[in-house]
Each structure stands twice: as structure tokens, then as C-alpha cells.
Amino acid sequence: MSSGGYRESPDGDPKKPVFYSDVGAGPLVRPYAMTGGRTRAMATTLDMISVVVASRREVDWAAVQPESASILKLCRRPISVAELAAHMDIPMTVVKVLLSDLVGKGFVLARAPLPAAENPQLNVLQAVLDGIRRL
Amino acid sequence: MASVDSDIPTTERGLPQALKILVAGGFGAGKTTLVGSVSEITPLSTEEIMTEASLGVDDLKGVEAKTTTTVALDFGRITINPELVLYLFGTPGQQRFWFMWDELATGTLGVVVLADTRRLDTCFSAVDFFERRGIPFVVAVNRFEGAADYTRDEVREALDVGSDVPIVPADARQRDSGKEVLLTLVEHVIRRRSPISTG
């Protein structure tokens, strides 16, 4: 997207320019501080119901920032992006950015949701009916 | 204590895939109650930060600056089988969150529009939204104490929805009732996708 830079501070004080690492982010709001101001997950397209799992057990925890470490611990079993965000109490947008870094590094595997809207997958729909009936 | 790790999938093909159903409706219509009655987990809540041009959204005439809004979402989960997980998302009912609905609606199996007969107008915008996008939906009429009973035809007429849209009475607090609503929705989706359907 767009590059960062210094811009006028929101209160108009020219002596206090605000650093924008990504213009799309607007002023650095706190949740995005963990992502270096990035508001969009690069490379990997993650949905709120993408299912993710940690792909390895050995991690150099010292090399991973605390939020990413929490993600790796929470996704030892398959879990959705929305559930991760809820358990971590961090907005989904932020979790997606952190996750996409981990996917890029090969620490996490992600599976996209079923493209339900496009294909008439009657066997899937039948499975959903059966699953709901079993509740 | 030695922990026994489950097999780590080596590719993403080893992971379950997820589907979602949305539960839409006005504030206080019982969306989270319905999600909770059928979910295998206590409904979770998460937040999404939405950055949107606010022009025309909040009726702030002339304001074109981007604004950041935090929208809370409640959701539950139903494990269908080892390969398939269904998520139910309660969507913010207010019309000003339409941009959120767009993102939520992408790839959704279908929608339960939860109607509150005391305030039927609060689900007009949801009905309109999903109708325009051709997303299958059913209308579940949540029973509230003291609310007048309306027939399906009365609700259909008031909401101005087509005769093919199922309208089901519901008690969002009861699991069996919630199941019935979801089954009606999935059957409706199957009917719409069936090649012999005449639409």
C-alpha cells in the first residue's frame, strides 16, 4: 500500500510530528503498535474463520514477540482466527497481521474457509444438516 | 509430566475447514442468546477494527475523513465432523455497520434474520441487505413475553419478503428451537441450490 513518514500531529502541534509507518493505518492506535502500524496482513489472506495450527513444537521463544508467542501456544491445536482473537482479547485485524507473519515464517499453517457461497456442495450441506441434528 | 502431542499436520490439508452462518437482527432481538443455545462453547466475543470512510454511514454530512470503529462480534461453534466446523456469528444489527456485514457475509452459508415482533422494523435493513446480495436467509420470529402473536403471513407481509423465504417461530433460549431454525436455513440453502428447483 502506501509508505510511511512523518505528518502533522492530530492536535496540530508542529513540534510533535506523528510517525506513520503505514499511511493506511492513520495515527498509530495502540492495538496496532504490536504490528508496527501495519493494518493489513500481507502475503497470506486470512479470514476470521481461517483455521490455523502451529506447525512445529520447537520455537526459539526469545526470538518471538510475546503476542506471537501467545498465538503459537494457543494454536497447538487447530483453532480459528476469531477464537484466537477472542482468547487473546486482541482485535481480529491485529491477530491476522501477526498470524500472517507466522505463516510467512513457516511457524503456522492456515486453512482457508470452505468457499460455501460459490459451489453447491450438497454433500457438505448434508453433513451440516446431520451435524446440527446431532446437537 | 510428559505431554503427548497430537500429530502435527504437515500441510494445511490436514486441518478442518470452517463454514459460517450469520445471525442478524436488531439490537436486543436475541442474537447472542440464539448463538449460545446451539453452540458447543460459551459464546465468545471478539472485536474487529474497521477503518472506513464515514461519509454517508453515520449521516455526518460532509465528513469525509476515515474513521476507526471497533465493532464487537459474538460467536459460537458447532463441530460438524473432524473435517468441518460451523461458526455462528451474531452480527451488529445497526444499519451503520453495513460495511461489517459485507465482510461477514462473504462466503457465508446463509443467514438467520432474527425478528422481534415488538420492533419488526429493526430487521428491515438486514432483510434488505441479504436480499439484494442474493444470500439465502430465513426469518426466525423470536417469541418475547407480552408480545402479540403474529401469523407467518402477517410477518411476511410486514417484512415484504418473498414466498420462498421460510419464516419460523423460535424461542432463542431453547436449543431445540435454535436447531430447528438452523435446519430450516440449511434445507432452504439446499433447495435453492438443487438443479430441479424452479427458484
UniProtKB/TrEMBL annotation, chain A:
InterPro entries recorded: DUF742 (IPR007995)
Domain of life: Bacteria
Family matches, as Pfam families: DUF742 (PF05331)
Protein name: DUF742 domain-containing protein
UniProtKB/TrEMBL annotation, chain B:
Keywords: ATP-binding, GTP-binding, Hydrolase, Nucleotide-binding
One annotated GO molecular function: ATP binding
UniProt xrefs under InterPro entries: Gliding_Motility_GTPase (IPR052705), Gpn (IPR004130), P-loop_NTPase (IPR027417)
Pfam families referenced in this protein's UniProt entry, alphabetically: ATP_bind_1
Entries under CDD domains matching the protein: Ras_like_GTPase
TM region positions: none
Presence of keyword GTP-binding: yes
Family: Belongs to the GPN-loop GTPase family.
Protein name: ATP-binding protein
Organism: Nocardiopsis ansamitocini
Source taxonomy: Bacteria, Bacillati, Actinomycetota, Actinomycetes, Streptosporangiales
